[in-house]
Amino acid sequence: MSAPRWISLQRGDMTLASVIAVALTAFFLSGMHVPAKSTHSLARELSVRLPLAFQVITAGGDRYLAANLAGFRVLVADVFRMTGDDMAIQAQLQRDVSWLNPAHEDNYYIAAAILSQPEWIPDAQYVLRRAADARPNDWQPLFYYGFNRYHFEKNPIAGAQALLEAVPRITEQQDSWTMQNLAARWLERGYSAGDAARLVDGMAENATPGPFQRYLKSRAQRLRDLAMLKELAKSYKDRHSHRLVSLDDLVGDGLIDKIPDDPLKVGYVLDENGEPAFAARR
Description:
With 282 residues, the chain is mainly α. The radius of gyration is 24 Å and the shape is elongated.
């Protein structure tokens, strides 16, 4: 029999749009001002966060009950009134819950929503990674984990890898497509164009034949074209000892017959360093 859950947010099966909303809430909260740290006595800290062994003992040796008791403190906390020291205790409590019961659903959901200051991201990631490993059919911890890697840790490759790890767990086809699309976008920003093209091609090969597979192939094609333009720009610079002024210089120099059409109809430009890049969407 599974361990009792005393508290539940009654979320049910959340759509990817709802999960993205939570992630964006975390991103918004990360910019909020947290009051300066206040002085806490050791007695006060121990009254809020007890050692793990003592938490299990007071729960009659039941680690899942101990997790629920600590989780209740996490759930009722008023984050808007917390000082920095309070948030540090909150983060440690959530790590405790994760250690006691890594599959605790409310704990990972709250960690994703409120542990969004740079100093607490490692705590959030600890909770989310353990939840992802303990809940093999739940894609949401991996999405939050990937979101944090991308937005807070500034690592688009690792973020995309987390999203791709989540894809097999998704049952709704539209959510699966959205997740893969997002991963493809992050890969574009983190890998060289050629490497990203090969990865997105691999995603397309594994996708169900149809419109979404064609869309991924279009993204892979534009990455290959961008990689080619970058190589030609390097050849142009080697030949003339100066950077491109316009992409049309590649045509004028006979390096290419014409600038390739972007399959997504956005186009290619030169960035501030004179390097070919994707044009900004309007």
